C-alpha cells in the first residue's frame, strides 16, 4: 500500500489515519509480514514534493516454537541427553535427527517436528531431561503451518504436478518441501524416484541421481516425433508404489527438456590431523635440507635370474623373497665405503655424526598412509635375514601395529615406488638422515651388449637425493656405481659380503 | 504342519526369485508378523540388517522377529567407553572384532553359543516385558520346570541369580526395536576375561556396564542348544502375538535385497563410529620410566586426544621438549597407530641424542599402553 498523500485533508481521512496508527500500536500478532509507517512530515501541500517513505520491518514475524520432549513410552518420565546432532544456528528440516537420549538401556533418537533454525538448546550433555519439557527452540519460517501433536505422514503434492498429467493413488510419497520444489523445477514425478532415506523418503541426492540417469533418455522435442515419457527407474522403484496409476503424456505434446542437473557439490575444509599432520611436520623439516638429485639406471638381468633360483629355497623356509633384500644389502655394503652417506648433522649443521649402525629404512604404503619402518643393523644381517625382517615389518604395517621402535632410528632410506609405478622420482630426505634412494619400476628394454648385439635387459631406474651441505655429486656418483655393480653382477656381492 | 513347511519353502523361494527387495517381500506377503533368521555370523552385517529393518521397513502394522548369532565379537552400547568396558589389548590380540551398536545398554560378548533376538515393532506397540515373556515362555516350553524369570531391569536370570540374558532397545520416530542376548553355550572363560578392563584411571560419564555372574542354559538342560532355542522362540512369538508368518532366512550382505545395507555395515565398522562416538573422558596414568616418576593426564573427546599433560620431574627432559611432545599429541586419535606416527614425526624433527631418544621411547610405550 503506497503512502499516497492527497492534498485533501478531510476530516474523515484524518480519523482513519489515527485509527490505523492505534491499530498498529496495539497489534500483537506474531504472523505479520510487513507493515508501513507514515512519516509525519510527508503531509505536504504540494504533490510535487511528496516524500514516500516505506519502512518495512520484520519484527516478530518468524515464530520461535518450543519443541517439547514427547512421550517415550513405558511410563518413562525422564531421560539423559547423550548427544546433540545440532547446535544453535543450524538449519534443520522436519524429521532430521536432533539428539540422542538414553533411558534405562533404551537409546532414543529425537527427530525434529518442524523446518527451521535451532535457536536454543535447553540441556547439556549428560543432563536429565523431563518428558514434556522443552528440548529446543526452533525458529520457523512463519509460513509453515503448525502440525498437530501427532507425527504426520505427508500427503503427496498432486496439485503441483498437474502439468505431468499424473495421478498418485494410495501411496504417500515422503519428501521435504525443498526436495519437492527441486523435483517440480526439474519436472520429475516423485513416484518415479527411488527414495533412499528413512521409510523410503526421497532425498535431494535421489532427485539428482534420477536426473543424471534421465539426461540420456530425453528425446529433443519435435512436433512429428512420438515423444516417449522418461523410462521408469529400476523395477524396485515401482514395487513400493504398487498401487500407483499413471496416465501417459499424450504423444503430440512435446516434453520439455529437463533443466540441467544442479551441481550441489561444495568445498569441504577440515583440519589436518593425525597422519597428515605428522607428514606436514616431517616434510617441513626436510625442506630445510638442500637436496641434489642424481639419477641412473641399473641392469638387473642377472639378479632376476638369481632371485628366481633362490625364491623357492626361501619359501621352503617360510619366507617371501623379493628384490628388496638384495637392494638393501647392496646399499649397506656401499655405505661401508662411503660412511658419509650414513651420517647425520645437527640443527645448525655444526657437527656431523657418522652412524655406526646401518639402519636402512623402507618406505611402506599402508592403508593409513606412508610409513617408513627400518631394518636395524643391516651390516650384520644376511640377505635371508633381511627378507625375514621385511616380512615381519610388512605384516605389522598392514595390520597397523608398527611402533616407534621400528619407525625411528633409521640412518638411510630406500623407497620402492616402482612397485606401484614410475621411473625417475625426486625423493625427499627424511630427517635426521642425509640421503635417500627411490627405485623405479623394472622394465624389460632392449640394450646393446659387449658384442654390439641387441639383447633383452631388465632395467630399473633409480633416483638418489642427498644433502648437498655435506655430500657432493662425486661421492654420490661413486656410491651409486658401487651399488649398481653389486646388483648387476651379484657374484661380486658374494665376494664382499660381511 | 506339512502345509506350514510347504508354505515356508514356497515363501523362501519366492523371496529369492520374485521380489526385488526385502521390503517389497514384506508388503507382498501381507503378513502382520514375520520371523527372520540371518545366515550370516558377521556382527557388522547383522547389526546393519537391524538398522536397515528399523529404517526402511514400515512397522506401523507389522512386527518382525529377527534371530541371529555371531562369531566371537565384543559389542558395546551406544554411549559406552570401549576402553573402560573391555580388555582391548586382549581383544586385539585375539583378533576379536569390536562393534558399537545403536541401542543403549551395556557391553556384551557374542559367540556362536549366544543367540540374539530382536523384536521390531511400531513405537506404540513397544513392550519389552511382553517380549521377554515370549523368551522365558519359549525356554519353559523346551524345558518345563526351568527356573527362568525376567527382572525389573529387563534381564533374564536362571535359578534366581545367574544372568542368561541382557536387554537393550532403540526407539526412532515411528518404530522401535528391543533386542536381547541369550547364553546357551557361550565360552564363559573368554567372556569374563574379555569384559574386564585393565585400565584404571578412566573418568567419564559413559554408561557403565553392571557385571553379573552368568551361566549357560545348556549346562542346565542339554535340550537348550541354540537352534532349538531359536525355533522355540519363533514358535512362541507366533503364539503370543497371534501371527502365522513364515520363517524366512536372510543373507544380510545381499545389496539387491536390502539396498544400502552394505554401506550401513561399512559405517558400523568405521573408526569414527566404534571409537569416535565415545563420550568425553579423561585418563590419568602414573608410571615410572627411566627411573623417573611421571604422571600422564589426557582429555579425550570423540576418540581424539584433546589435551595432554605430562608431569615429569624437573630436568628429566628439557621443558620445551615436553611441551612440544604434548602439542604433537593434541588432535591425534586415541589409537596406538596414530600416536606412533605422531611421536615418530616429533622425534625426527626435534630430538637429538641417544639419551633423549631412549626417554621418549619409554614415554611412548607407557602412553600407548592405555590405548
From TrEMBL, chain A:
Its biological purpose: The branched-chain alpha-keto dehydrogenase complex catalyzes the overall conversion of alpha-keto acids to acyl-CoA and CO(2). It contains multiple copies of three enzymatic components: branched-chain alpha-keto acid decarboxylase (E1), lipoamide acyltransferase (E2) and lipoamide dehydrogenase (E3). Within this complex, the catalytic function of this enzyme is to accept, and to transfer to coenzyme A, acyl groups that are generated by the branched-chain alpha-keto acid decarboxylase component.
Organism superkingdom: Eukaryota
EC number: 2.3.1.-
Ranges of residues in domain Lipoyl-binding: 64-139
PROSITE patterns per the UniProt record, alphabetical: BIOTINYL_LIPOYL, LIPOYL, PSBD
Family: Belongs to the 2-oxoacid dehydrogenase family.
Localisation per UniProt entry: Mitochondrion matrix
Region (Disordered): 245-268
Cofactor: (R)-lipoate
Protein name: Dihydrolipoamide acetyltransferase component of pyruvate dehydrogenase complex
GO molecular function: acetyltransferase activity; dihydrolipoamide branched chain acyltransferase activity; lipoic acid binding
Domain Peripheral subunit-binding (PSBD) as annotated: residue spans: 174-211
Catalyzed chemical reaction(s): N(6)-[(R)-dihydrolipoyl]-L-lysyl-[protein] + 2-methylpropanoyl-CoA = N(6)-[(R)-S(8)-2-methylpropanoyldihydrolipoyl]-L-lysyl-[protein] + CoA
TrEMBL record, chain B:
Subcellular location: Mitochondrion
Database matches in SUPFAM superfamilies: Class II aaRS and biotin synthetases, SufE/NifU
Catalyzed reaction equations: (R)-lipoyl-5'-AMP + L-lysyl-[lipoyl-carrier protein] = N(6)-[(R)-lipoyl]-L-lysyl-[lipoyl-carrier protein] + AMP + 2 H(+); N(6)-[(R)-lipoyl]-L-lysyl-[glycine-cleavage complex H protein] + L-lysyl-[lipoyl-carrier protein] = L-lysyl-[glycine-cleavage complex H protein] + N(6)-[(R)-lipoyl]-L-lysyl-[lipoyl-carrier protein]
InterPro entries: aa-tRNA-synth_II/BPL/LPL, BPL_LPL_catalytic, LipoylTrfase_LipoateP_Ligase
Function: Lipoyl amidotransferase that catalyzes the transfer of lipoyl moieties from lipoyl-protein H of the glycine cleavage system (lipoyl-GCSH) to E2 subunits of the pyruvate dehydrogenase complex (PDCE2). Unable to catalyze the transfer of octanoyl from octanoyl-GCSH to PDCE2. In vitro, it is also able to catalyze the transfer of the lipoyl group from lipoyl-AMP to the specific lysine residue of lipoyl domains of lipoate-dependent enzymes but this reaction may not be physiologically relevant.
A single MF term (Gene Ontology): lipoyltransferase activity
PANTHER family: LIPOATE-PROTEIN LIGASE (PTHR12561), LIPOYLTRANSFERASE 1, MITOCHONDRIAL (PTHR12561:SF3)
Entry EC no(s): 2.3.1.200
Keywords (A to Z) from UniProt: Acyltransferase, Mitochondrion, Transferase, Transit peptide
Family label: Belongs to the LplA family.
Name by which UniProt lists this protein: Lipoyl amidotransferase LIPT1, mitochondrial
EC class: transferase
One GO term of the biological process aspect: protein lipoylation
Biological or metabolic pathway of the protein: Protein modification; protein lipoylation via exogenous pathway; protein N(6)-(lipoyl)lysine from lipoate: step 2/2
A Gene Ontology cellular-component term: mitochondrion
